C-alpha cells in the first residue's frame, strides 16, 4: 500500500464500516450493568457470581489488548476485523439465547475476544490512513464513537430492562453486529503494513497474568476490600508478572509490546497525562450515579438521563476538538479542558443533600465538556511522535494503560469514599446517641447515613480535584510534534529492524 496515495485519498467508506463495528462493540460494553439484578433472579445466582459477566468481559479485554500490537502487525486489518466481528456476533447470539448462566458467561467471553481487538485496530487504521496534519479531525470522529456508545448504554439498558427482558439487550445488538460483519466482508480492504513475526508464548502468558491480575485485583478491591486474599494476591501476582514481562520485552529484538517507544518524550508525557486523567475521570462516572441515586433518591433511569446530556455534549465536541487540534495543537486544548475539569470537579466537592437536579446535570455536562477537550488531543499528540511501525505498539499501550489506570483510579476513589463515609458515620452516630441519651430512631439513622455518604462523596471529589490538577500542570509541557520521516529513524532509536510496507 502506497502511504502517500493513501493520505491523498483516505478510504472513508472502509473507516465508516470499522466505526460502525466499534460502535456496536462499545455500546455492548455498558449495556449489561443495569440488567444484572434481572439475570440474578432468572438464573438464581449470587451477586459475586453474576459479576463475572462484567469482570470476565473486562479480563478478556485486558489480556487481548496488550497482545493487539502483535496481531495488528502479523495479520491484515481485513482478516483481523472479520475475525473479531465474527467472534463478537457469535458471542452476542449465544448470550441472547443462552439456556443457562454458563452459556451466558461463555457468550460474554466470546464477545470480549472480538471487541478487545476492535479499538486498537481502528486506531491503528486511522493513524495509517491520515497524515499528521489531518489526524486530529479523524481522531475526533473516532472519539465521537468511543464516547457516545458507552454513554448511551446505561440509559438505553435502563429503559429496555424496565419494559422488556434482559435478553432484548443482546437481541438489539445482534442484527447490527451481523450487518457490520456483512459490510466488512464485501467492502474492507487491507491498508496497514504487516510483518511475518512469531508470537512469543511466554510473553503472552506473562502479559495475561500481569494485566489480567492487575485489572481483576483493583476492580475487585472496591467490593471485596483491600485485605481480601484474592485482591492483594492477584495484584501482587500481576505486578510481579508485569515486571518480568517488561524485562523480557526489553531484551527481545521483536517484542510483543514495545516499551522502548517511551524514548519518545511526547508519547511518554501523553501516557502519564492519560493515566492521571483516567483516574480522575472515573470519579465523575462512579460517584455521580451513587450521589444521585443513593443520596438524592433519583431512579436509575432518571440518573442515566441526568448524565446523558454531558455524554452527548462530549460526543458533539469530539469532532470539533479534532479540528481545533489540527489548527492549534494539543497543549492549548489540554490546558483549557483540564482547567474546566479541575474547576467543575471542585464544585462537585461542594454538593449538598438538596442540590438541584438540573444544577447537577449542568455541572456534569460542563465537566464532560472539559474532558472532551483533553482526551483525544493528548492521546493524538503523543501518537503523532511515533512512526508508522510503532503505531500498533502505541495504540495497544494507550488502550491497556487506560484500562489499568481506570481500574486503579476507581478502586482507590471508592476506598477513599468508603473510609471517609465510615469515619463520618461513626462520628455522627456517636453525637446523635450522646444528644438523645442513646436512643436514635431508624429515620434519624437513615438521614445520618445519607449525610455520611454525602461527606464521603464530596471528600473524594475534593481528592479527585488534586489528581486532575496534576494532569493540568503536566499539560503545560506538551509540544507539537512530527513523526520521523522514515522507519530507519525508528529502527535506530528503538534498535529494531525497519518495517516494510
List the helices and strands and how they pair.
Elements lengths: L2 H6 L3 H20 L4 H8 L3 H4 L1 H23 L2 H20 L4 H29 L2 H32 L3 H21 L13 H24 L4 H23 L13 H31 L4 H29 L1 H19 L8 H16 L2 H9 L7 H45 L6 H34 L11 H8 L7
Helix pairs in contact: 2-7, 2-8, 2-9, 5-7, 5-10, 5-17, 6-7, 6-9, 7-8, 7-17, 8-13, 8-16, 10-11, 10-17, 12-15, 12-16, 12-17, 12-18, 13-14, 13-15, 14-15, 14-16, 14-18, 17-18
Describe this structure as you would to a colleague.
- This protein has 501 residues and is mainly α.
- It folds into three domains: 1-197, Growth Hormone, Chain: A; 201-251; 262-501, MFS general substrate transporter like domains (Growth Hormone, Chain: A, Up-down Bundle), CATH 1.20.1250.
- It is built from 19 helices and no strands.
- It has helices spanning 3-8, 12-31, 36-43, 47-50, 52-74, 77-96, 101-129, 132-163, 167-187, 201-224, 229-251, 265-295, 300-328, 330-348, 357-372, 375-383, 391-435, 442-475, 487-494.
- Helix 12 runs antiparallel to helix 15 (357-372), helix 13 runs antiparallel to helix 14 and helix 14 (330-348) packs antiparallel against helix 15 (357-372).
- The protein is globular and about 80 Å long.
- The model is unreliable at 496-501 (pLDDT under 50).
- This is MFS transporter.
- Pfam families: MFS_1.
- Keywords: Cell membrane, Membrane, Transmembrane, Transmembrane helix, Transport.
- Belongs to the major facilitator superfamily. EmrB family.
